[in-house]
Design goal:
The chain is α/β, with parallel strands linked by helices and about 250 residues long. It has a single domain, classed as Aldolase class I (TIM Barrel, Alpha-Beta Barrel). Helix 1 packs parallel to helix 2, helix 1 packs parallel to helix 11 and helix 7 packs parallel to helix 8. The longest helix is centred in the C-terminal third of the chain and has 18 residues. The two termini are about 15 Å apart. The structure holds 2-phosphoglycolic acid. The site of 2-phosphoglycolic acid has 13 residues, from strand 8.
Length: about 250
């Protein structure tokens, strides 16, 4: 395949600081011999504490979101500089919960993507269709639009710092997983979009994670698919016992 597996955990709005530190400590131990790329994204309030725990380990520190603006009167927001100040290396952008609960659109997400990259962060850009869109036969089209608009203006060089995460909205936190074949079909379609926007080498190199009820019991058949290069894990990322096996499947 040539691409490295990349397994990431999005802790969402779970765990207080003490619990986050405990989980991070467990993961540092569990993954220290792991061969893949790993990232954990705690809540903003646990970032600083978790940063101290994973410093020097093979786990990257991720944030779950950031503001479109660099500083100023944006009550309740967190800037790219604040994230970097805490040692954050990756930011998850465009997660479906940001899109659907908080109304983030492709333009806003694109602004965040460009700012994060300009400031040297890696980006994990989430895309994915709703159930309604899938049933209307629009899964590929929605993912194409989110990819093109999310990455508008991103240079080929900066694509080395971009990971995509295909997360069908209907599979997130629901226990429903896309079949490996359905997921593979979207991953292949998205890779084609990247080839069209950039070139084949960029498309071949870009990591595309799957997300949506991925767990130890189903991760292997998903990761076996040609264009599935890793996972963005929610629920199963909240315990060492469920995250470690996914990280170590390959
Ligand atoms: P889930 O969440 O694994 O709990 O379905 C995935 C995600 O939202 O990243």
């Amino acid at each position: 395949m040539g691409r490295q597996y990349y397994i990431a955990a999005n802790w969402k709005m779970n765990m207080l600081k003490g619990e986050s530190v405990e989980l991070a400590q467990g993961l540092v131990k569990a993954l220290k011999d792991g061969k893949n790329k790993y990232m954990i994204a705690p809540s903003f309030t646990s970032l600083d504490a978790v940063a101290q725990v994973i410093k020097g380990s093979n786990i990257l520190l991720g944030a779950q979101n950031m503001c479109t603006e660099e500083k100023g009167a944006y009550t309740g927001e967190v800037s790219v500089h604040m994230l970097k100040d805490l040692g954050v290396q990756v930011v998850i952008l465009g997660h479906s919960e940001r899109r659907h609960i908080y109304g983030e659109d492709n333009e806003m997400i694109n602004k965040k993507v460009k700012l994060a990259l300009a400031e040297g962060l890696e980006v994990d850009l989430c895309i994915g269709e709703t159930l309604e869109e899938r049933e209307a036969g629009k899964a590929d089209a929605v993912c194409e639009e989110q990819t093109r608009k999310g990455l508008a203006g991103v240079s080929k060089a900066d694509m080395a710092k971009v990971t995509l995460a295909y997360e069908p909205v209907w599979a997130i936190g629901t226990g429903k997983t896309a079949t490996p074949e359905d997921a593979q079909a979207v991953h292949a379609a998205v890779r084609k979009v990247i080839a069209d926007m950039y070139d084949q080498a960029t498309a071949d190199a870009v990591i595309i994670q799957y997300g949506g009820s991925m767990k130890p019991a189903n991760c292997q058949e998903l990761l076996n698919q040609k264009d599935i290069d890793g996972g963005l894990i929610g629920g199963a990322g909240l315990k060492v016992e469920t995250f470690e096996p996914i990280c170590k499947t390959y």
